[in-house]
Amino acid sequence: MSLCAIFGHYLVFIVVLMPTLVPKSDGKCAFEAIFNFGDSNSDTGGFWAAFPAQAPPNGMTYFKRPVGRATDGRLMIDFLAQALGLPFLSPYLQSIGSDYRHGANFATLASTVLLPNTSLFVTGISPFSLAIQLNQMKEFKVKVDELHSKGHKGASNLPQPDIFGKAIYTFYIGQNDFTSNLASLGIGRVKQSLPQVVSQIASTIKVLYGLGGRTFLVLNLAPVGCYPAFLVELPHNSSDLDAFGCMVSYNNAVVDYNNMLKDALHQTRQGLHNANLIYVDTHAVLLELFHHPTSHGLFFYSTCLACCG
Fold first, then answer.
1. CA-based diameter of the chain, in Å?
2. Cis peptide before 57 (omega within 30 of 0)
3. CA-to-CA distance for 21 and 69, rounded, in angstroms?
4. Reported pTM
5. Under DSSP, is residue 273 helix (H, G, I), strand (E, B) or coil?
6. Which of 167, 170, 24 is nearest to 86 (CA)?
7. Distance CA 109, CA 285 (A)
8. Please, what is the average pLDDT of the chain?
9. What's the half-sphere exposure (Cβ side, CA atoms, 13 Å) at 174?
10. Which of 85, 161, 169, 184 is most deeply packed, by most CB within 10 A?
11. Per-residue CA distances from 60 to 26, 46, 64, 72, 105 (Å)
């Protein structure tokens, strides 16, 4: 199954930057592992492994108990792993019960691309920014190579050293860089930092390419101007709302960022021989769901209103 088929099944539209991904003759993906970098949108337990405190209803829909995801069900990264025939990703920070033979998840709730200049206990921003996650990935590869070279028994739950060229590297991060300071700084000042965010993602891909990575999947930002929490928290007036109740100025800023990210990935691809950089337009899919929920089986009279509170 090609990646386009996989994400088409899960309502994600993919734009593939040349050269395109070509499926094997048997129609199955050849990826043997996933290495994920991100925030709560793809955290499978990293944050709660570092700061244990999770309680129900997290996890109650699918897992029937809290399992480290900031949701009561599964995440997109879970569905991707299933579609590739791989197990759910173990968090890098989870010391008990982890199996890294098919990759690792470096994502943590509340992570940013840029290094935070504040404390988790002051603003709630995770200390595990993208740069830290990248350093963890580097250390992971060093340990894999070292333990396998020595025939160490501790390598039994680690992948083979050649896995890094056979893996897909996924990025679902950047939303917290955009939203965490919106209320205090305003949209204008936040937009000034977005080129740095894009640059950091591009430079991280280059480093991973140097470690052997060849296929990179980068998800763009969602239309946060439609999120009920931000409609409550962020300053706006009725003239800034579109026909669906979403904040136009914030969504326009997201579109500007997404275009910047897409252009940066295209430019980055030009300097990486035999690499695949895939830009995933989650924004278009989620905006469609916000605008026309009942057309997709979501029976809400308004997706821009909170269910409670």
1. 66
2. yes
3. 30
4. 0.90
5. coil
6. 167
7. 22
8. 88
9. 27
10. 169
11. 37, 18, 4, 5, 21
> CA–CA separation, 224 vs 1, rounded Å?
31
Phi and psi at 72, nearest 5°, equal: -95, 5
Alpha-carbon distance of 6 to 16, in angstroms, equals: 13
Using CA atoms, how far residue 165 sits from 4, 213, 276, in Å, is: 20, 5, 12
Amino acid sitting at position 218? V
Please provide residue 296's backbone torsions phi and psi, each rounded to the nearest 5 degrees: -120, 20
Q: Give me the residue label for tokens 């009561």.
A: 72
Q: Of 166, 177, 70, which Cα lies nearest the Cα of 117?
A: 177
From the list 285, 255, 279, 280, the residue with the least C-alpha distance to 267 is 279
Q: In this structure, how many other beta carbons lie within 10 angstroms of the beta carbon of residue 227?
A: 22
pLDDT at 10 over 50: no
Question: Cα separations (Å) of 182 from 40, 111, 120, 185, 242?
Answer: 18, 16, 17, 5, 19
pLDDT confidence band for 28 (50 / 70 / 90): low
Q: Cα(288)–Cα(171) distance, rounded to whole angstroms?
A: 22
Distance between CA atoms of residues 166 and 215, nearest Å? 8
Q: Which residue has the tokens 């997290």?
A: 58
Q: Please report, as a single letter, which amino acid is at residue 168.
A: I
Whole-number Å distance between alpha carbons of 197 and 177: 8
Rounded distance, CA 201 to CA 120, Å? 22
Indicate if the pLDDT at residue 254 is higher than 90.
yes
d(CA 128, CA 198): 18
Q: How many residues are there in the chain?
A: 309
Contact indicator for 72, 57 with CB cutoff of 8 Å: yes
pLDDT at 22 over 60: no
What pLDDT is attached to residue 298? Answer: 75
Angstrom CA distances, 65 to 68, 121, 308, stand at 9, 26, 22
pLDDT tens figures, 116-175: 988 887 788 999 999 999 999 999 999 999 998 888 777 789 999 999 999 999 999 999
